[in-house]
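User: Can you predict the 3D structure for this chain?
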Amino acid sequence: MGLSIRTTPAEIEIKTIPARFDAHTTYAKLELKQKPPLIHIKTEQAMVLIDQYPCFAEEGLKNNADFMKEQAQKGHKSIISYTGKVARNGDEMAKIGHKANIMINIAKNEAITKHEFGLGYVPKSRPRISSTGGTLELKAEFINNVGEINGVSGRYIPGKIRHDYSPPKVDIRVVSYGSIDIKYSPNDVDTYI
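Assistant: Here is the predicted structure, written as structure tokens:
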């Protein structure tokens, strides 16, 4: 007689997926823009004007208008002096009956020519010096718009946080169940007494 016991263990499969937590952050941003300052500068060069005409005019280099004016004044002066001389001669001639040597005096005065000498080589007038220009104009452009300080404008972009959470999983399954197999086998030899 025989007794055989055969067992098969149970088999369980366990799969686990751990929990997962993902966090993505986007940083906050502050964007600043600044308008550069602008200054308009306008300059005019200084100029020095030197007029040497008075010096040249003394040397006789005159323009036509001044030359004509000077000659007219000389002619006017000559006419006045000649008229005065004729008047003086007439006054002397009026004294003829008073035993005076009138004609001799007149001839003596007319015979002698009086000259006035003036000698100059260097102009005595100074050149006229004047200046123009030499200006500097500064104009700053207004840089502030509404709400800006020193032309700086800003924009704030808030940060973001994103969460992804995956819960854990546990999968349990039975691959095979356990078993017990018990067999009874009688004797193979039959004995009889």
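The chain is about 25% helix and 40% strand. The mean pLDDT is 87.
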